[in-house]
Amino acid sequence: DQQVKQNSPSLSVQEGRISILNCDYTNSMFDYFLWYKKYPAEGPTFLISISSIKDKNEDGRFTVFLNKSAKHLSLHIVPSQPGDSAVYFCAASARDSGTYKYIFGTGTRLKVLA
Amino acid sequence: DTAVSQTPKYLVTQMGNDKSIKCEQNLGHDTMYWYKQDSKKFLKIMFSYNNKELIINETVPNRFSPKSPDKAHLNLHINSLELGDSAVYFCASSQDRALGGYTFGSGTRLTVV
């Protein structure tokens, strides 16, 4: 049972345009969400987070939007740069669960074309 | 200066062997994790230790045994390796409830032949 889903395995975007990566979740207990970026042969690196008390969080070129009613979050990258080409994972956690466990999606491979 | 380091980076071994993967973090974090990324790219949690205490133990074969000698180290020992154990194993650490996310190691690619 996959509680966090990234239905687009890959995405190609022209440099300078907006990249939108999507993530859906099924567990209504999730209240904290993260996005990670992963380059080949490296571990994932933390990018941006959002709590369920917010619907938007922005950090430079990266903005995460949360739609709790739709159980959907998205990561916007604008403007996209070739160095953004990587695999992006979303992850979700229920902070009251008493554990420190994040459930990850399967990732979306973003390719930014120069 | 690597924050979360795992060794080895690559491991090729035969079925039935026993192997260990080591992980160390120098961030002063209280919690460490092992995640497995399988061929379908699912990143699934296996174990988590908080201050040397096991707090998460997912449904993992008991051939897998984590060991945390201190809060800066979390090693993974695998007995009687099987072909299906082939995957990339990531170690990670976090402070408290991981509200700042995890810091991952670069992964260990295990291939069982």
Largest interface: A-B, 23 and 28 residues
Share of helix among residues of chain A? under 10%
Work out the number of β strands of chain B. Answer: 11
- Binned strand content of chain A: over 45%
Which residues of chain A sit in consecutive blocks of at least 5 with pLDDT less than 50?
none
What is the element string of chain A, with H for helices and E for strands? Answer: EEEEEEEEEEE
How would you classify the quaternary structure? Answer: heterodimer
Describe the 3D structure.
The complex is a heterodimer of chains A (114) and B (113). With 114 residues, chain A is mainly beta. Chain A has strands spanning 4-5, 10-14, 19-25, 32-38, 45-51, 56-59, 62-67, 72-77, 86-93, 103-104, 108-113. In chain A, the strands form two sheets. In chain A, strands 2, 4, 5, 9, 10 and 11 form a six-stranded mixed sheet that branches. With 113 residues, chain B is mostly beta strands. Chain B is 0% helix and 56% strand. Chain B has strands at residues 4-7, 10-13, 19-25, 31-37, 43-50, 53-57, 64-70, 73-78, 87-94, 103-104, 108-112. Chain B is globular and about 40 Å long. The model of chain B has no long low-confidence stretch (mean pLDDT 90). Chain A binds chain B through residues 2, 32, 34, 36, 41-46, 49, 89, 91, 93, 95, 99-104, 106-107, and chain B through 4, 31, 33, 35, 40-45, 48, 50, 55-56, 90, 92, 94, 97-107.
